[in-house]
Amino acid sequence: MPVETPGYYEYFGRTFKLDSTPSGGLQGYLLNLDTGEFDVDSRPIKKVLFATSTSDISKLTADDFVNETEELRAYTLAGEGPIFALYDTIDAMFARKDVESRGFTDQERALIKSLRRRTFAMWEDELARRAAGEPPSFTVRRKNV
Question: In terms of domains, do 55 and 66 share one?
Answer without folding.
Answer: no
